[in-house]
């Protein structure tokens, strides 16, 4: 295994203590034949849960078969499962929800057609609520179908839309610092930070400006990104492309026909990270001007097929150097030589785990 270098970016000023708990390597057997399983993860209100970690485990030894993360709508796909799924256990974990475990056979048996929903239940301590109202700034009329993203640090937690009254409620929110992003065609994007303490209920009203009112003529740029295999130059489908600016995740899309398109981008510097189960994580940056259209072709390196130690596990504990208290929401990036192989945030207990 390559020597890891670890880069940690914090969203507040603090000295960090970093404790490496353990690294281990186990045998991993990939079945010759495979099957695919697709589902959507939702909360008690039916809202999709993004950035949930999904693990397919073999029983009884609980060996890892495949692992992925849900997209911003809560959807995920496992594509390397054995044809016989009788001995496959599905484990879903998320910082804000109780861990879910169920045999894959039982889950599929409950399917009644359509997209299979899997419901996660909130932790008892997550009792905060935010009530959101969106209005047109000039007329003060309610705005329906405003896309609202609830994020913590660099992770989108939930995404939903305002109703006909311009209202949306996110409940069962855990204690912590969050930010909202409101977007609607024809209107200027709004971002707002907020903090939940215990079982707070916050009501926030947003008056949204039309683009002509805001005189913002510099958020009309477009970027098209092609993703290709470095060895074959073939286009790659199913890659998750994340768009970042100033440390905030602005959008996340999955490649279809080998590319994604991001529109209505503002002038400035942007970052892109690309993730795919069969390829190494990759990043690049670009800068765009007003009214520009740019195209990029980015190549991904395939995961090594000769690495016999690909089930190693690293567990990091991140704490404040002075107080010793665990720090949640720390951005952890793990590199092998110059290649980013993993990134994520420390959980509510201060841990980041990579398997």
Helices and strands, with pairings:
Elements: E1 4-9, E2 16-20, E3 35-42, E4 53-58, E5 63-69, E6 75-81, E7 88-94, E8 97-103, H1 104-109, E9 117-119, E10 128-136, E11 147-152, E12 155-161, E13 167-173, E14 176-183, E15 190-196, E16 201-208, H2 211-214, E17 221-229, E18 240-245, E19 248-254, E20 259-265, E21 268-276, E22 279-288, E23 293-300, E24 314-320, E25 331-336, E26 339-345, E27 351-354
Parallel strand pairs: 3-9, 10-16, 17-23
Antiparallel strand pairs: 1-25, 2-24, 3-6, 4-5, 4-7, 7-8, 10-13, 11-12, 11-14, 14-15, 17-20, 18-19, 18-21, 21-22, 24-27, 25-26
How do you describe this structure in short?
About 5% of the residues lie in helices and about 55% in strands. With about 350 residues, the chain is mainly β.
